[in-house]
Design a protein that fits this description.
Layout: E1 15-21, E2 35-36, E3 48-53, E4 69-70, E5 78-88, E6 93-101, E7 114-121, E8 142-143
Parallel strand pairs: 2-8
Antiparallel strand pairs: 1-5, 3-4, 3-6, 6-7
Length: 149
């Protein structure tokens, strides 16, 4: 399969993108694909943090200092459009989503309440087609594990 090319200033390939938001109900589910705390309740936006990593471990989300992006609402993140390194329009990609409760540690590695999952993105968008969100992926939500203190 040949990668698609669209007119651009650089004349290069269009990178595959996706809209990184979990504000959707996965097919066959009855609830949104939320980030949940160990108790099963949506993780608080006051302390919930998320970050998205490329396959090589590069942080793709906007906050790249280890502190993570804050949740936009309890259990929900709205990280905007992200490009997947090495992926092209219509191609597949894979990213890792990490989430944690910052009350248990400032960063993912320090937190005791945390979780992560690999997300398969089967058909990336971009170019003249607006990017879909994670609803086209295999992401169905994430429940954190661990405890505070």
């Amino acid at each position: 399969m040949n990668p698609l090319r669209f007119p651009s200033d650089s004349g290069g390939l269009v990178t595959g993108t996706f809209n990184c938001s979990n504000n959707f109900i996965p097919n066959g589910a009855s609830e949104k694909a939320l980030i949940l705390g160990p108790d099963g309740a949506p993780l608080s936006k006051a302390t919930g943090r998320v970050e998205v990593l490329a396959a090589d471990g590069t942080v793709l989300s906007t906050v790249q200092d280890g502190a993570g992006n804050a949740l936009g609402a309890d259990g929900l993140f709205f990280l905007g459009v992200m490009s997947v390194p090495g992926a092209t329009l219509g191609g597949a990609g894979r990213v890792t989503l990490r989430a944690w409760d910052s009350a248990s540690g400032a960063t993912f590695s320090e937190a005791t309440v945390k979780g992560q999952t690999s997300i398969n993105l089967p058909s990336l968008d971009g170019g003249i087609k607006p990017p879909d969100n994670l609803s086209d992926s295999d992401f169905r939500g994430l429940r954190l594990s661990g405890g505070i203190g």
